[in-house]
Amino acid sequence: MRILIVGSGGREHALAWKLAQEAEVICAPGNPGIALVGECVPVAATDHNGLTALALAREVDLVLVGPENPLVAGLADKLRGAGIATLGPGADGAQLEASKAYSKALMVEAGVPTPRFETFFDPLSAKAFAGSLLMQGKGVVVKASGNALGKGVMVCSEPEEVAEAIDAMLVDREFGDAGAEIVIEERLIGYEFSLLTLCSGTDFRSLPVAQDYKRALDGDRGPNTGGMGSYSPVGTVDAGMVARVEASTVKPILDAMRSRGIDYRGVLFSGMMVEEGVAYCLEYNVRFGDPETQSVVRRLGNGFAVALGACANGAEIPSIEVLDDAAVTVVVASGGYPGTYAKGKQIELGPMPGGVEVFHSGTSVADGKLVTAGGRVCAVSAAGATQDEARKNAYQGAEQVKFEGAFFRRDIAS
Ligand code: AMP
Ligand code: GLY
Question: Which of 58, 64, 120, 185 is most buried, most CB within 10 Å of its CB?
């Protein structure tokens, strides 16, 4: 089997690392870490013609599209139109991630449990609705409807914070067009988990549950980021909870999409929060999570590549072996992230403990040296017999990633 992975981040490195155990992997454009496990071809994720030509020339069995932007822009439609089996929804299915307003409306239509919300273009009405939630003693979450790289969500408890967040999006347009429409939502209090489900249009199968850490700083303080670490399994989420979420959140949205003529073949990422024992869907993404995937793939045995192929081909999805191991992933980021940060800092990787893989996210090579090229630089991922062991090794590994300004959270999986 020959697989083309589109993308260049830590998620794509983790997928390439896992799939290289079962298939030949080509990645476009890839990164210096991916080059260690597969062939990288310098075609950008935005170059849909180039990617289609590459997939045809190399006669790949499957294209796996990593990030959401190419999906939103119709890459999967283009590839399937050229007869190439593709994992990732078309532009229609990708709206589930591209627009939170659309996604929340579809959740309501499908009866998916989700926090109470309304959508707004106008700051005054947004503030009035937020005010009514605050009066009821609820916290308020202000969300840019469009894609703001995981940073367009502000969790607020004071009226001043709410007004500031609304003005930042609707008046100052800090997130550009992504914040031209906003969702105001009731804040839930509880724990979160991510459920990644492989979908073939006719069948679905969930992968092991993971938990992500969205805030930049220890103790869930600081701004939201793309994700600062992850672990799997998640002790609080048992098989019964997964089955309930599949019934309440996965199947109904897939059915709603099918009834709209959307043939959803790809990964459905359900971002869940559990409040008083009830699991609510906060959002869907239309791709593998980053850095959830870095932990999830560490727990997969045989059958992943074949299952992805079945999804892309609209078939029944065979089971994938799941290992008993625990996995913990710590993201090492550039100082200043998720705000502004320096690039081009030289990276030294010291010796890693056993069971550790370093997945590259924002790295590149300059003058023959590995340097930083993004906010999230790499994800140090450890697998071990217990969560404690994996955690200890992931942190020992993170200490070995050295560059000026490097930082990571100290409380992943603690
Ligand atoms: P989202 O992109 O919608 O998943 O939001 C990003 C993060 O913001 C989530 O992972 C939560 O940590 C937080 N968040 C979003 N919506 C809510 C909510 N209704 N209540 C509490 N926290 C939320
Ligand atoms: N880690 C959250 C995401 O991939 O969106």
Answer: 64
Q: Where are the alpha helices (DSSP H) in 21-99?
A: 48-57, 68-72, 75-81, 91-98
Contact 51, 81 (CB under 8 A): no
Please state the φ and ψ torsions of residue 285, each to the nearest 5 degrees: -120, 160
CA 287 to ligand 2 centroid distance, Å: 9
Phi, psi of 10 (to 5 degrees): -65, -35
Q: Where are the alpha helices (DSSP H) in 58-152?
A: 68-72, 75-81, 91-98, 100-110, 123-135
Nearest protein CA to atom 5 of ligand 2, as residue: 289
How much is the pTM? 0.97
Ligand 2: list residues with CB < 6 Å. 150, 212, 227, 285, 289-290, 292
Beta bridge partners of 331: 379
Please list the rounded mean pLDDT of every run of 10 residues in the chain (414 residues): 98 98 98 98 98 98 98 98 98 97 97 98 97 94 88 89 96 95 96 97 97 94 92 96 98 98 98 97 97 98 98 98 98 96 98 97 97 98 98 98 98 96
User: Which ligand has its closest atom nearest to the C-alpha of 290?
Assistant: 2
Ligand 2 mutation target, pool 153, 292, 295, most atoms within 8 A of CB? 292
Say how far apart CA 372 and CA 197 lie, in whole Å: 32
Which ligand has the nearest atom to the CA of 104? 1
- Residue 155 in contact with ligand 1 by CB distance below 6 A: yes
Q: Is 335 exposed, middle or buried (0-12, 13-18, 19+ CB in 10 A)?
A: middle
Atom of ligand 1 at shortest range from CA of 187: 20
What is the distance between the terminal CA atoms of the chain, rounded to a whole angstrom? 39
Place of tokens 């990964």: 267
**Pocket probe mutation, ligand 2, options 11, 96, 281, 290, max atoms within 8 Å of Cβ:** 290
Identity of the residue numbered 321 = E
CA of 274 to the centre of ligand 1 (A): 12
Distance CA 99, CA 62 (A): 27
